[in-house]
Design brief:
By secondary structure, the chain is of the alpha+beta class. Helices cover 30% and strands 12% of the residues.
């Protein structure tokens, strides 16, 4: 094994440790058995289901598929199959207890580290990738280990959404975030020049199938906001009758607003002439300078119409996030190819909410667009689908089964997203009615002819 593989394996082992420490911190270290076994919302699983699910997923992909080992607990596979068991029904299953889940996860992890030590995770030569077998493709540059690490962090973000829905006293620490000084952009919007750019990726070893393959997209010029829509801006929409004016809403959006009797983002509470919010068991006034979060696609779309703009398409978002007009390159992150640091973005649960708009100027794209990574997931106007040449790998249920089923694409990650589970090509998706996720938005508009 060469030095490069050794370093890659050290990184994988470290990230596996980080993800498990985070998962345990959101479950075993945060709540008692009653709190872990309870279903705090029909929208979400009991936290103990998520805890054992990440171990079962890890066993199936790293021990069985990658390691070729015998199943440790084939008897529980059906309990932790997300497609077989809807979230609202998981509380009725004979789930592992918190102690049993912890012991199972520890046993899986011990064997996984042994598999990692013996695995050949050398990159496959690009021109030979089409001819490799499925097992070698899984190990290519450590792909299957990266997939499992990201999967656990994605469930950690889901568990944070469950904690937000949970009633009761705060149990999670709210850190300061240690972020850079406030430096809002000088201009409210920036013109993205017309022309082609490379969307997606072919060679990123952490990328999922729906991010592949890289392909050229040619866009007309457009304007995009340099910052996310803030609570203060959204409050002006509300004060102007945004939720009461049918004109700003699509038919589907207005029907949703009426069914839900929505008059504000989720978790907001009217306080006379002001608004407060509930955040992880804490009650506080809505901070005007933070990006608005917990809004549905329908709310984001209505605000954009009220503002005389629209939501960006997914391609427009990605071009603004990673295209450098000076070089013609598409980079991995808005600031380049270096991995995210605290000066770039608010990621990884460093604080339990988004940073004020303009807090991460070092994370701006070459065009000057800020906070494209972290803080809140950004709704786009695009329906989730595969790219030209899409190939499902390693299983259809990660992406393909959600194509063309009424899911809208979200981009950029949130404050709850771990740095390993987000990049400028990363694609998230959800139903347009979802609000428990950490979602916000920025606006765009068509450019005049030049």
């Amino acid at each position: 094994m060469n030095h490069e593989q050794e370093r890659a394996k050290e990184r994988i082992a470290l990230e596996l440790e980080h993800s498990r420490r985070r998962s345990n911190g959101l479950t075993l270290d945060a709540l008692n058995d009653e709190g872990l076994l309870a279903q705090h919302s029909k929208l979400m699983s009991p936290l103990v289901w998520d805890l054992a699910h990440i171990g079962n997923y890890e066993e199936q992909w790293l021990l069985r598929a990658a390691g070729g080992r015998e199943a440790l607990r084939p008897d529980i596979d059906h309990l932790y199959d997300a497609f077989e068991n809807p979230r609202a029904e998981r509380v009725t299953l004979p789930l592992l207890t918190p102690d049993e889940a912890a012991d199972y996860n520890d046993r899986v992890r011990r064997e996984v580290l042994d598999v990692l030590d013996k695995a050949d995770i050398a990159p496959v030569v690009p021109r030979q990738r089409e001819g490799v077998d499925g097992h070698r493709a899984l190990l290519d540059a450590g792909f299957v280990f990266h997939m499992v690490i990201q999967h656990e962090h994605q469930h950690d973000e889901t568990m944070l959404a469950t904690h937000q829905l949970r009633k009761g006293e705060p149990v999670l620490l709210d850190g300061s975030g240690g972020v850079a000084a406030l430096s809002p952009p000088a201009e409210a919007e920036v013109l993205v020049p017309a022309g082609p750019f490379t969307m997606g990726t072919t060679d990123d070893p952490w990328a999922y199938d729906n991010e592949r393959p890289a392909h050229t997209v040619d866009l007309p010029a457009y304007w995009i906001d340099t910052r996310l829509v803030t609570n203060a801006e959204y409050l002006r929409f509300m004060a102007d009758g945004g939720y009461q004016t049918r004109y700003w809403w699509t038919r589907e959006g207005w029907e949703w607003r009426q069914r839900r009797n929505a008059v504000s983002p989720a978790f907001w509470i009217r306080e006379g002439q002001d608004w407060s919010r509930r955040r992880f068991g804490r009650h506080e006034m809505v901070p005007p300078e933070e990006p608005v979060q917990h809004v549905s696609f329908h709310e984001a779309q209505a605000y954009a119409r009220w503002a005389g703009k629209r939501l960006p398409t997914e391609a427009e978002w990605e071009k603004a996030a990673r295209f450098d007009p000076a070089t013609g390159r598409s980079t991995r992150y808005p600031w380049g190819d270096d991995e995210p640091g605290t000066r770039h973005a608010n990621l990884g649960q460093r604080r339990l909410g988004p940073s004020p708009a303009g807090r991460h100027p070092d994370g701006a794209s070459p065009l000057g667009v800020q906070q494209l990574i972290g803080d809140v997931w950004e709704w786009t106007s695009t329906t989730f689908d595969g790219y030209p040449g899409f190939r499902a790998f390693p299983y259809r249920e990660y992406s393909e089964v959600f194509f063309d089923e009424g899911y809208k694409v979200l981009r950029g990650g949130s404050w709850a997203t771990h740095p390993t589970a987000v990049r400028s090509t990363f694609r998230n998706w959800d139903h347009p009615i979802r609000r428990q996720i950490f979602s916000g938005f920025r606006c765009a508009r068509d450019a005049e002819s030049y």
